[in-house]
Amino acid sequence: MKKPLVLIVDDEPDICELLEITLNRMDIQTYTAENIRTAKALLQQKHFELCLTDMKLPDGNGLDLIDTIQASPNPIPVAVITAHGNMDTAILAMKKGAFDFISKPVDLAVLRQLINSALKLSDPVVTKERRIRHELLGESLSMWEIRSKIDKVARSQAPVLISGESGSGKELVARLIHQQSSRSDHSFVAINCGAIPLELMESEFFGHKRGSFTGAVTEKKGLFQAAEGGTLFLDEVADLPLPLQVKLLRAIQEKKIRPIGEHQEIPVDIRLLSATHRNLAEMVQTGSFRQDLFYRINVIDLHIPPLRDRKADIPALTEHILVKLSAVNKIRPPALSKTALAALQQYHFPGNVRELENILERALALYDGKIIEYDDLNLPISTHNKLNCPEYAPDFGSLEDYLEKIERKAIILALKENKRDKAAAAKQLGLSVRSFSYRLKKLNLDS
Using CA of residue 302, residue 308, residue 310, residue 316, what is the dihedral sign? Predict the structure, then answer.
């Protein structure tokens, strides 16, 4: 079998020799370059699987080499070697597309882990399974862009911050990044940061030794160790208390953790993905989230749009969810009436895809076994989309006139949806029949 080929770019002979010896022992063939000019020439002559480059070189910066490689038709993974503690440079390199970074003095165990992960990206078994359209549904432009970005970030070790409203599919995106990455044969460990009691957080994240505190009757591995070699997903990362934010930052930067009661730090090899529905930038301004941690986990930002901003995807999502729910219930997937589908496409979906699943699950339990009609959906009436009311402005006239228009729209819509059954319309609007009749008369709608 042909040996993998790795390019080492560094002007320090001792570093080059150390890297060459380590890689040769891993049965990897190496070429070295002491400057960017030589490195670019070698990249044109040979097909490398990986490039390891120092940041400060005699004729330029390692970032220039990253740009050159990323601009090539078939870019290879690039790992940068940075001075100890120079995280700003490492973050900038990963934003430009670097696979990962390693700090001087080089930890050989960490180096071997990095190289093994990078070389897996050239494995045809990994690269052939990159179709995710059947899992992350939608043909809207935003969904095409997200799928494309998932494919790109999966080829990196850079931390990703996934933002979006609750129920929009942040965990699904995180799982897909993991599945498309070189870490897919290891664990994906997901944790909701807001669901862990404060007093247990450090132990949950980093583990503890037996007897390290009252109640620690056995040794426990933390989430970082559970995700070893794989991906750690921190959902609702904004809920982390400030003391733990400090320790998390150190663990990410040093790639090491210290369990409670342990005197030595333990190296860990994980890819960190985070998610939140809150505005972390605003939290940084108010002091409730550390700025250095924010920049560290937000190397790549991936925003998931709310469902109401991609209504064209609702028919495909609806069909997929009904097929999935029907399989669980061992029934044939039902059809959806045109009226019901139109109502879903008009609905505002404050709960996003998760709310769509709940609505369809309820409809599946209520429909008559033939076709899901509008009434089976049981959608709330008072939604922005259905009433389609603009925000109040002075040129709309008096506030009383504006509110009367909204009230009229709501009542007409309720009567229409309940086939002019006044009692049902009143119930849908949360009114008594007497109050509803009074409003009909006041608005001249009682005829």
Answer: positive
Task: Spell out the residues 6+ positions from residue 380 whose beta carbon is closer than 8 angstroms to its own.
Answer: none
Number of H helices, E strands in the chain: 21, 16
Q: Note the pTM of the prediction, 2 decimals.
A: 0.76
**Tokens (6 digits) for 141:** 């432009």
- The number of angstroms, rounded, from the C-alpha of 116 to the middle of its chain's C-alpha atoms is 24
Q: Average per-residue pLDDT in the chain?
A: 86
pLDDT (tens digit, 9 = 90+) per residue, 402-432?
A: 777 878 888 888 888 777 888 888 877 767 7
CATH of domain 386-442: 1.10.10
Cβ-Cβ contacts under 8 Å for 196 (sequence gap 6 or more)? 204
Residue 418, both tokens: 């309940």
Q: Facing residues of 123 across strands?
A: none
Cα–Cα distance for residue pair 406/384, rounded to 1 Å: 11
For the chain, domain boundaries: 5-122, 142-303, 307-379, 386-442
Tokens read off for 49? 């699987």
CATH topology of domain 307-379: Helicase, Ruva Protein; domain 3 (1.10.8)
Superfamily of domain 5-122: Response regulator (3.40.50.2300)
142-303 shares the fold of 5-122:
yes
Distance in angstroms (rounded) separating the CA atoms of residues 17 and 11: 11
Q: Residue 308 phi/psi, 5° resolution?
A: -65, -20
Does residue 174 carry a pLDDT above 70?
yes
Residue 360 has pLDDT above 80, yes or no: yes
